[in-house]
Predict the structure.
Amino acid sequence: MNDKKIKNIIIIILIPLCIALGVIIFKDRKYNLISMIIAILSCIPIFLTFEKGETSTRRIVIIAVMIAISVAGRVAFTALQGFKPVAAIVIITAIYLGAEAGFLTGSMSAIISNIYFGQGPWTPCQMFSWGMIGFIAGLPFMQKLLLKNRVVLSIYGIFSGIIFSLIMDIWTTLSIDGIYNMKRYMAAVATSFPFMAIYAISNVVFLMLALKPFGEKLERIKIKYGI
Amino acid sequence: MKSFSSFHPTILFLYYLLVIFISMFTMNPVILGCSLVGSILFFSMMNSPRAILKDIIYYFLVFILIAITNPIFSHNGETVLFFLNDKPVTVEAIIYGIAIGTMLIAVIFWSKSYSQVMTSDKFVYLFGRAIPKLSLVLSMALRFIPMFKEQIKKVNQVQKTLGLYSSDSITDRVLSGIRVLNSVLTWSLENAINQADSMKSRGYGLKGRTNFSLFKFDKRDMTILIAIILISVIVVLGFAFNIFEFYYYPAISILKLSRVGILEYIFIFILMILPFIIEVKENIHWKLLRSKI
Amino acid sequence: MEIIKVENLNFTYPEQKIKALEDISFSIEQGEFVAICGESGSGKTTLLKLLKRELAPYGDKDGNIYYKDKRLEELDARIAASDIGFVMQNPENQIVTDKVWHELAFGLENLGIPTPVIRRRVGEMANFFGIHQWFRKKTTELSGGQKQLLNLASIMVMQPEVLILDEPTSQLDPIAASDFISTLEKLNRDLGLTIILVEHRLEEVIPISDKVMIMEKGNIILYDKPQYIGQELKEIDENHKMLSALPSAIRIFNGLDTKGQSPLTVREGREFLSNNYENKVVTLDRFSTNYKNEEENIIELKNIWFRYERDLPDVLTGLNFHVKKEEIVSILGGNGSGKTTFLNIISGQNKPYRGKILIRGKKINKYKGKELYKHNIAVLPQNPQTVFLKSTVKEDYKEIGKVMGYTKEEINTYTKEIVEMLSIKELLDKHPYDLSGGEQQKVALGKILLLKPKILLLDEPTKGIDAFSKKVLYDILLDLKKQGVTIIMVTHDVEFAAVASDSCGLFFDGEIISTDRPVEFFSNNSFYTTAANRISRHMYNNAITCEDVIEICKLNGVKKDYERQKN
C-alpha cells in the first residue's frame, strides 16, 4: 500500500468515523477526546508523506534547525514578556521551504516546546494549530502572496495569532463541557483576549522585521547547497 | 532511579494512554476520583514535598474556580438553588463542575508525571520505528535547542560590547532580539550543512535502517503488560455493559453498585494507583535491603 | 598493499577558472599514517573530500581514485560509507543525535545492523575510548575534547579501514588536542588503521606520521618521510612559508644548515643540540625592549572577587592586575581557569562583587551607557562568527559605522584604513561564512577596529588558525601597538605568546600569578613554555623561540668532535 492510499484512507474514512463514533456510540459529550484524536489524525497524512518521501538529508537538518530556532528563540526575547516567535518563524519557514516544512516545523515545535513547558491533552491541538498555520502559509499561492504583499503578511500574522488562540479556546470549552458551549466559549475568548492581542501584534512585528533578513538566510542556503 | 519509569517505554506509553483515555472518556465520579487520587499519589512520589504542596494548592484553586463558574455557563438541571440575573443556578451544574474539575486536574497531574517519566530519549525511541525520520528530526532539534540558547547568550554579549541596542526601550529590545536571532540563524544554518555531511558520510539514507536502543523488554515488563491488558479488557467490558453509566442532567443519576460493579471499580482503582504501588514497593524493598546490611 | 591510489586527479569548482587540484598522483599503503599540510586554499580539504565519496564536492573532476584497487565510484554504498571514515574540523557540527549512546549507534543503524550486534560494537568502542563514564549523557553536556572523541568513536564503530581527518583538533585546547592525537597514534599502532590527517598542530603530528605531504596551489610539492621534509622544502625554496610551520626541532635543524635526518621531537632535538653544539655561551644577550615602567597604568584591577551566582564558587579570588599603555599582554592558563571571565570583567560584562577596576584612570562603573565601548574598549570574541550579522562583510562594516555615528566619509576612510592594514580588500563583498577561519577572524577584527578602540581584548585569537595566519595576526598586533592601542589577550598558545607579547602572566586558581617579560616568564617555566625552550633549556638559559636557539647555537659553534660523533 503506498503512502497516498494510506493518506486518503485516513482522511476519508477515519476522521468522519471518529465524529460518527463520537456522536453515536459515545452518546456525544466526548468531544474533548474526539477533538484530540482528530487533531492527531490530521497530522498523520503529512507526517507520512514526509516519512515516505525522498527528502534530502540537508533539508531534514534544516527543518530540525528551524524547529529548534522557533523554540529556543524565546530566549532572545526574555526581556519581553509574552513575546513568542514560534508562529512567525513557522510562517517564514513555510514561505521559503513550502507547506510540508511549514507544517512539520509548526507541529514539532508544539511537541518540543511542551517538553519544556509541560505536555498535556492540549498538545495535539497545539500541534495541529501551529502545523496548519505553517501549512497554509506554505501553499504555493500563499507563499507568493505573503512574500509580495506586506498587508497580506500582516493580516496573516494577525490571523494566525487569533486562530491559534481561538482554537485553543475551543479546546478549553470542549474539555470543560464535553460539548460546544457558546457562552463558555465567549468567556474563554474574553479571558484570553489580552494574550491573543499580544500574540497577534508580536506576530506582525516579528514578521515585518524578520521576514527579509531571515528569508535571505534561507534563500542563500537553498541556492548554495541546492535544497 | 525511580522504579516505574524504568519500565520499557512501550509499557509506559500504553499505560498513560489508557489512563488518560479512561479519565477523559467517562464522567463517572468514582472513576474520576480514582484517577485523581492515583495521579496525585504518583506525582508526589516523584517530587519534593514543597513542589507537591505548591502544585496541589494551585490546582485546588483552579478546581474551585471551575466548580463555581460552571453554573454560570450551564443552566441545565432540575434542582434550582437561586436565580442570578434571571438565570437559574442548579445543584446539578455545581456537581457537574466538581466532576469536570476533578477530571481536568487528574489529567493535568497525569501529564505532569508523564513529562517526568517519558523522557525525550524514550519518546524518540518509541516513535523511531513508526516515524523514523521525524523522530530523528526530534532528536536533532532536542540537541540544537540548548546549543542555540548558548549561542544566543554569546551573541547577545558580543552585540553589547559593540555598543548595539543597549537601552531598555521596547524598540531596542525587539530589534536586538531579532538581530541576535538572525545571527544565530545564519550560524546554525551554515553549520547544519556540516551536520548533513556528517550524516551522509556515516551512511544515512541507505535502505533498511535499523533502530538501536538501550531499552530491553524483560520479564518484569511482560508481567506488567499482561496485567495492564487484563485490567483494560475488564474495564472495557464494564463500559460495554453500561456499568459505569452516569449522568448529571437533568437530574443526577444514582451510582449503580452491583457486585460486578464494585469489582469493576476495584480494578479501576488498582489500575490508577499502579505506579504508586510500584514505587512504594520498591522503596520498602530498598529499606529492607539496607537494614539487612 | 596499496589501500588508496590517486591517479592524475584534477578538480575544478563550478564557475572557477583555476583548478583546485592539478594532476595529483600518489598512493598510500595500508596502515600508513600520512599527515597533509599546506596553506589554506592549497587544496587539502578538497582532496580529502574527494577521497570520501559521500562528501565529494560538485565540480569538474577527472582522473581516478582507487580504494583497494577498485574505483571509488564503483564501491558498494555500504562499503563506501563504512570503510572510509571522515572526521571534520568542528566537533559541534558533526554530532547528530542528543544522546551519546545514540550517536555511537547512528552509523550502524544506517547500515541496517541488528540491535545485538550494535550493542556489542558500541560497548566495545565506548570502552576503548573511555566513553563508558559519559555513555548516557546528553551530547550537549560534553566538553569540546569529549565531543571530538565521540565523533571519532562513532566512526570507529563502523570499523573503517581508512580514517580521514580534516583539522580535527583546531577547535580544541592543547591538552585535549594532545589527547586526541595520541588516540590517533594508538589507533594506527594497535589496530593498523590507515590514517590521513590534515593538521595545523604539526609539532605533535609530524613526529608520529610515516609520511608527510605538503601541498601548494593544488599541487603536491613534497611527499616524503618526516625526517627529510625540512631539508627538501628548503631546497625547493629558501624562504618557503611552510618552513615556519614545521616542528621546532626541524626548524632549528634547518636554521643551522645541517644535513641528514632531522630530529622531530623535543627529545631528539635535545640530543641533537647536546651532540653537536658547545655551550660556552649560556645566556643570550638581550637589551630590554621598550619596557616602559614609567608609563601610566591604562588598566588597573585591584583585589577582584567574582562568582557567577551566589551559590557558585568564586572564579576570581582577589585578582590584581595592571597593564601599561601600549603593551601587548598575554594571559596564559588552562581550560576553565577563568581566563574568559577575567576578560569579561575588564570589558564590563561581568561585574565583580568586590574590588576596584580603573580603565584609563576612571572607575569602570562611571562609564555610562555605550561610553565604555566607544573609542575605548573592544573585544574580539573567541568565535568570530558571533560578530557577523549581515550578508556581506561590507554591510557589516557599514552598520557598525552607523552605530558609532560616523558620517559617510568617515565610514569610508576608516574602512579603507582598516582594509589596507588587514589586507582584506577582496573579502569585503563576500559572505562572512564563505571565508576560511583565518579570514573570518581578520574580518571580525576589522569590524571591531572600526570602534577605534584604545584597548583591545582578544579571547584565544589563534584558535583554529594556521601558522601563516598567526604570523599575519602578529604583524597586525604590532601595527596596532604602534598606533597606540593596548592589547590584552588570553590564550593557550604558548608559542604565539612567546613571540607576540611584551609581558606574560599565568592564570591560576582565580588569580594572575607571575607576570613577567616573555623571556623571563618562559625560561622560568619548565612545562608551560615553548618547544624551542624545552629543546634548549638543558644547555642555554633564555632561548625562547627557534630563532633564539639558532642564534645562540651559532654563537657557540659546532663541537669539534662533531664529525667523529656522527660516524
In short: Chain B touches chain A through 61 residues (CB under 8 Å). The beta strands of chain B are 80-84, 87-90.
